[in-house]
Write a sequence for this structure.
């Protein structure tokens, strides 16, 4: 009786557990079948055509700007600052007086020397007249002439000293912030103010010696700066160093850039591009179309409403475009935004604008 009851319990448990496991297996099978037959969602993307362009390769460089004329103005004489004849940031002309130093002592010495000069000239003229009547000797006349020249030199020296106590602008340009105050005692060589001629700026940079054959005086160069993003400045190469740096293999180059608007300032860092001669046509796509990956860069191409992932080999980048050496043909439609949601074979719908950019809300009245 007990054995029969045990058999019934085992058979019942087997049926229960078998039903549970069977139900779980059936559920998993149905889930897999559902996902296998479920249609893939359509992803909104924007696209652009791969173009065949005349691509001029460039020699890139980084340089520093400097004014065609720039100097820290200082005086060559010491003295008390009596007058400051400029304002910080002012535009000045060549020869314009900027600072006057006290010249009271020098003016007193000059008046004394001028009086001595008058006496020496009178003595000399008298000796010249007396020599004709043999009243004075030739030696006396020569002594008077020497005294006259000494007094003339003394007057000229004092006049030069007084002139140097008026500091002037050496060229046309824009002043910086003044470094002195009225009544201050100025030492020789002490900076008064910075002066920069901004009408033309120079850019010093270096290129590799392997690119030396591609660089020539007078060649057009383009420059961009962080201060003016999106704006390109055009200039020309003015000079090339005749010496190659033996340690780095680099060659110094200087370019000139017109600066009528004074947008460029000395000390700025700049990116330089020297155009090489025209080469063959190349396939280019917007840089936003490239998906960068450690396993290889790729671009999604739209074919028959589906996105296909193509592994590509890239070249140079410039102005928002990138050269595609292989993997894409000219005229193919490439995805420029929305790649994050894509996989190979995804259904796509080409949308206007960036599908990732939030759309403005419509107000219901």
């Amino acid at each position: 009786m007990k054995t029969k009851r045990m058999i019934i319990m085992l058979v019942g448990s087997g049926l229960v557990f078998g039903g549970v496991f069977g139900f779980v297996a059936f559920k998993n099978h149905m889930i897999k079948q559902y996902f296998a037959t479920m249609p893939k969602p359509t992803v909104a993307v924007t696209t652009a055509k791969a173009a065949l362009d005349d691509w001029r390769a460039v020699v890139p460089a980084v340089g520093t700007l400097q004014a065609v004329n720039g100097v820290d103005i200082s005086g060559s004489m010491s003295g008390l600052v009596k007058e400051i004849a400029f304002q910080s940031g002012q535009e000045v002309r060549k020869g314009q007086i900027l600072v006057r130093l006290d010249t009271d002592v020098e003016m007193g010495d000059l008046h004394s020397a001028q009086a001595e000069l008058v006496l020496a000239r009178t003595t000399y003229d008298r000796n010249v007249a007396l020599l004709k009547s043999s009243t004075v000797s030739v030696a006396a006349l020569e002594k008077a002439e020497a005294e006259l020249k000494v007094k003339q030199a003394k007057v000229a020296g004092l006049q030069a000293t007084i002139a140097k106590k008026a500091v002037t602008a050496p060229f046309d340009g824009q002043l910086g912030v003044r470094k002195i105050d009225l009544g201050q005692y100025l030492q020789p060589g002490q900076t008064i103010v910075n002066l920069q001629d901004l009408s033309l700026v120079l850019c010093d940079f270096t290129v590799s010696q392997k690119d030396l054959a591609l660089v020539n005086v007078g060649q057009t160069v383009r420059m961009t700066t962080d201060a003016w993003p999106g704006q390109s400045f055009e200039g020309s190469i003015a000079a090339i160093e005749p010496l190659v740096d033996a340690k780095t293999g680099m060659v110094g180059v200087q370019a000139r850039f017109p600066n009528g608007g004074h947008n460029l300032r000395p000390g700025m860092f700049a990116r330089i591009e020297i155009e090489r001669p025209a080469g063959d046509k190349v396939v280019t796509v917007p840089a936003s179309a490239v998906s960068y990956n450690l396993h290889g860069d790729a671009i999604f191409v739209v074919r028959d409403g589906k996105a296909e992932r193509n592994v590509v080999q890239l070249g140079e980048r410039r102005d928002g475009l990138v050269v595609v050496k292989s993997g894409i043909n000219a005229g193919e439609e490439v995805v420029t935004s929305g790649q994050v949601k894509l996989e190979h074979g995804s259904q796509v719908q080409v949308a206007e604008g960036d599908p990732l950019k939030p759309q403005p809300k419509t107000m219901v009245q």
